[in-house]
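Entry, Tuesday afternoon. Goal for today is a structural model of the target with zinc ion bound, before we commit to ordering more compound. Inputs were pasted exactly as handed over by J.K., no edits. I checked the ligand SMILES twice against the vendor sheet because last time a stereocentre got dropped in transcription.
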Amino acid sequence: MKIYNTLTRRKEDFVPLEEGKVKMYACGITVSGEAHIGHAYQALIYDIIRKYLEKAGYDVKYARNYTDVDDKIIAKSHETGIPALEYAAMMIENIDALMRRFEVDDPTVWLKATENIDNIIDFVESLIKSGHAYPTERGDVYFKVDSFKGYGKLSGRRTEDAYESVRIENEENKQDPLDFALWKSAKEGEIYWESPWGKGRPGWHIECSAMNRAAFGEQIDIHGGGRDLVFPHHENEIAQTEALTGKQFAKYWIHNGLIKVNGQKMSKSLGNSLLLKDLLDEYSPETIKYALLQTNYRGDINITDELFPEADKHMYGFYKTLADVEASGLKADGGSPDIDAEFDRAMDDDFNTAKALADLFGLFKRIKAKLAASDASAANDAEQIKKTYGLLGLFRRKPAEFIAYYEAKQKSDIPAEVLRLADERAAAKVAKDWATADALRAKITALGYSVKDTKEGPVIEKL
Ligand SMILES: [Zn+2]
């Protein structure tokens, strides 16, 4: 199995620290707002990577965190009047429920910053003792970046460049602008925990280092997150952990690409955030997954208006074929190992879901040909696809269920005028009034829709 490692900037053979076991951590969500498609995508990718590692025979321990205290959560708490911890707990419950609807499984271990305050304080104290961090008079603690020689090795940023990218804030007590906060003193009215440096709360970066150590010890195999976390978050995690342990923190650093909407970065200020809730109200989780997994996880995904409707159409086509297999009465009498082997070949190459999904077209074409020839192995192929591609969260439904969902949705998307014309056309056909039926079809076409007559009745589609 090959994995692209951000740290070495190349694909490497995957060899875990301990034979047969994988320790994997992926940075999770800061629960200051509702879950959007970016959150869902990240959760999906690491769930799939975990499942594929398990399929390959590894015993995987996979941890994900919730950042449940930070500046934005505190701001939301002040805005809503809900205490910060209560607000965070409410958001976590809400996001968990959405992820279940999206059919993404829980990690082996859930970690929360607020449940690890002692671990965090202990970590920060050790960094101060070893000269890698310092407290200020105000009660903040900073990591001393120039005390760690390897700073910049993940992002490839040289320290000089990094200076330009750090916002020079009004933090006069920092010894160096690059130094970053491990512990933040509490302002009046903010949530706090007692610490050796006074009342305060953890910085963001330290929670992942401290929780990793608590969950796994000093080293892990895989650390994942969105590409936007490479700098400074992951660079800082490396600095904190490796300064403390003197050992390599994560052997493989995996970063998923980012999501754009119609070519633009998704952001609150642009108002173009696609909320997971809204997407799940409109599309099957399988459609959303199919749409996202058509791109290799390292590439950026551009969500256009057509992306989900197109994915819906493809999934519908595949499910129609699965329904045809059921209707044919052909029974599976074994698997189709070639399908599974080809899937593994794609996934062994840096989890290439794009290739695995592209293969589906050829596979379903083959099933159709076999059906036409009454070849019973069509049923074996269909069963194998369900089993193999179930790992990606696809084909978990009964064909009739997906077909009903798609057709009902198509109908609800069609303007009432078109539906009325189609009904009139159907009546004209029953009356064998072909001229009227043809004229009505022309009107439907002029409105941008097609009408096809099938065994199940007329099917209306957008042109
Ligand atoms: Zn993190």
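Residues 27, 208, 233, 237 surround zinc ion (CB under 6 Å).
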